[in-house]
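PROTOCOL LOG
Step 1. Enter all chains and additional molecules of the complex.
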Amino acid sequence: MNASGRTLTLNIFRFDPRLEGDQPRMQRYQLPESDGMTLFIALNKLREEQDPSLKFDFVCRAGICGSCAMVINGKPGLTCRTLTTASPAGEFTLHPLPAFELIGDLSVDTGRFMRAMSERIEGWVHREKAGNIHVLEERMEPALAEAIYELDRCIECGCCVAACATKRMKESFLGAVGFMKLARFRLDPRDGRDDADYYEVIGSEDGVFGCMSLLGCEDSCPKALPHQVQIAYLRRKMLQA
Amino acid sequence: MAEQRNYLRLLTWDPSGRRTAARLDLWQSLSGFLLALFLWAHLLLVSSILLGKEAMAWVTRAMEGAFLSPHGEGYPVIVSVIALAITLLVVVHALLAMRKLPSNWHQYRELRHSQQLLDHADTRQWSLQALTGVIILFLVPAHLFTMFALPETIGPEGSAMRIVAGGFWILYLPLLLVAELHGAIGLYRLAIKWNLFPSRDPRRTRLRLQRLKWAASGLFILLGLATLAVFVRIGLEQGGAL
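Step 2. Run joint prediction.
Step 3. Record the structure below.
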């Protein structure tokens, strides 16, 4: 199992805000590396074998749920998609995602943020009147369906928000996940909103005109979504709205 | 929920100001674009001194509109007008760009923490852009006012005397460094921000723009240093002392 024979070192941020008197600190753990090991597997082994108090999130293990996002060696990412071989020295420093409420150690509450974001951009298909469920839906060109799907791949992991220094400085800033969602509905012909409606949502300094193009989102999105191009596109469209 | 939102909309409803955010962003970009182009053009013109005193004297006369006057004496006031226009652009650009700087301790601390925790090149470069922008804001007024008030002193000898005997090298040396960094980073960000070079592979385009940006900063700084060195030599030859 341990073909490499390496010993991994994990420096993990520890702090439980609900424990009285607890102080933020870095704790060092070591464990043997195994073949095909991801950081997610390593963390679970640590919790099983060394420290049951270690807090971190995961659900799917396959880069789909977005739960296991954290700052891995200075870059937001998913532990389930990070092989331990990614570090030549076998050493990882792990922090919880900033910009979100800390639950404890590496676990943050992205859910509340994502819900508020979704409500703010009204992230659902807006229709003038309810559709008739007894007739077939209007057809969509496969290319358009694919374009929508491409933007719909967002898993709301929060990496783009954590990586955004603009968002850190200005809490009311929407953030890349919101822009990506909105771009998705803007493409969707079933959504009845026009650009003037979208301008109401993102046409401000808390929206697309507050983005400073630092591209933390672009560089840390685990799904490699086209943030730079999409935000630029929205900005141009909102300028004309 | 819906009623509350409508009420908030009524409170902030301002038909004339609805598109202000878009306009401000566009003007920040446009003013920066014009200033960066001017910066490069300006340095190229000044660096004519590298081709000799005559070359720079010719450029100076041309900029003063010598070809317009019957005896070729030119109108230095044209330079004053340009200096005034650039000053206005700088004011507009500074006021608009200032909105993006951390404006209180909390914001500054958040930015610092973000940079300590995360290793991200573009964010670091933005910080450099912000820092150089602030430095420019303090350094450039002296330069602009001199050009506005004493346009007739521009020329191979006059500029050399200003730089050496007048001690302006102390101003020009740091100004050259920060302006050439700020301008190139700014143009790069404009290209990214508005996706000015759409391509099939935006990540590769961005990498190329990054390289181009560093190359532009480096080349113009080298050109500026060489230009400054020649002026210092001429100034010293004319009996000036640093």
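Step 4. Note key features.
Residues 25-237 of chain B form a domain with the 3 helical TM bundles of succinate and fumarate reductases fold (CATH 1.20.1300.10).
Chain B is about 75% helix and 0% strand.
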